[in-house]
Amino acid sequence: MHAFLKLMPLALAAFVVALPGQLQKRGSTQYDDNFDDLQTSVVTPQLFPVGLYHGIKYGGVVVLRPIEGAASVVPHSKPQQIGAAGPIDLLQLGTITLNTYAQLVRGPGVKSFDLQSFYFGLGTDTGSTAGLAQGGTIAVTGFDVHGNQIPTVSLSYAPIGSLNQPLKYATFPDSYKNLANVSIGVATSEPITERTYIALDNVRHVNYS
What we know:
Structural class: mainly beta
Radius of gyration: 21 Å
Largest sheet: 11 strands, antiparallel
Distance between the termini: 43 Å
């Protein structure tokens, strides 16, 4: 009995230490954004911005349903993906200038988010969902909830053809956690950086509330 009483404070301490972690897990939700349930138009996709989706404000991107047989890149999970086409404004991040870019910003009720992975591709900016796939590099940079810039991740895309090319899978390091926002932009591309369109699909993130 005496030994049991001596162990009780240790057991209670372990319970108290474990409790905050359990509470944090209950406040997290993982999403795999495929955008297939959003409204769009093949003819005028620019009229259908993504906006707030699964707790994340998607800026600079519209919902796309690529034309079968004429698309530069095709969604990972058909029928839809999202795309950023044409520069909103040039975004300067240190030594990197992003031309076409998209932004992910925590929405109302979301304290922070982790960016885990997405599929991406590059094509020519024709103002529609038709175009040609092209090679290039995108730069991904995030800021955490304390305003600290996360080291930039560079991702290359090298299609083997010009039409109906698959998107490429990319994962992110553990530093892409506790985020307030993320910018995804074209750093370099062929032939003209300023006329490159970014396709994104299956954006996987964890939101904390």
